[in-house]
Amino acid sequence: MYELVDTFYLLLYTFGKGGLSVIVNHVKEIMDQQGKSIRGVARETGLAINTVSGLYHDTSKRVDMETLDRFCKHLKVSTGELLEYIEDKETPPE
């Protein structure tokens, strides 16, 4: 169905309307590229270490808008660079 080009991407699968869509979390990749640690990002953004760790390890079930705002400002990226939505291409249009 989908080719995973990078084994470091952690995927959150969402099922709906008979198809499979994917949200790809790029937080770990971006933080690693910038040499940022979980503890450092938590300290510098004021976010709880569990919040940063959850996004880094892609274990978070939901993300608060303020959290996204702080991540984007700190890492100097857009929300679309942090999280990418890939729509199921195999589901026929309704």
Descriptive report:
With 94 residues, the chain is an alpha+beta fold. The chain has helices spanning 27-33, 38-45, 49-56, 65-75, 79-82, and strands at 10-16, 19-25, 83-86. It is built from 5 helices and 3 strands. It has a 3-stranded antiparallel beta sheet with strand order 1-2-3. The longest helix has 11 residues, at 65-75. Mean pLDDT is 81; it is low at 1-17.
In CATH terms, the superfamily is lambda repressor-like DNA-binding domains
Helix content: 40-55%
**Residue fraction in strands:** 15-25%
Q: What is the CATH architecture assignment? A: Orthogonal Bundle
Question: Structural class given helices, strands, pairing?
Answer: alpha+beta
Low-pLDDT stretches: 1-17
The main sheet comes to:
3 strands, antiparallel
Shape: elongated
Might you state the CATH topology name?
Answer: 434 Repressor (Amino-terminal Domain)
Euclidean distance between termini CA atoms: 20 Å
What is the helix/strand order?
EEHHHHHE
- Domain count: the total is 1
Assigned CATH class? Mainly Alpha
How many helices?
5
Strand elements, count: 3
Strand-helix topology:
Elements: E1 10-16, E2 19-25, H1 27-33, H2 38-45, H3 49-56, H4 65-75, H5 79-82, E3 83-86
Antiparallel strand pairs: 1-2, 2-3
In summary, what is this structure?
With 94 residues, the protein is of the alpha+beta class.
Which key terms come to mind for this protein?
94 residues; 3-stranded antiparallel β-sheet; 5 helices; 40% helix
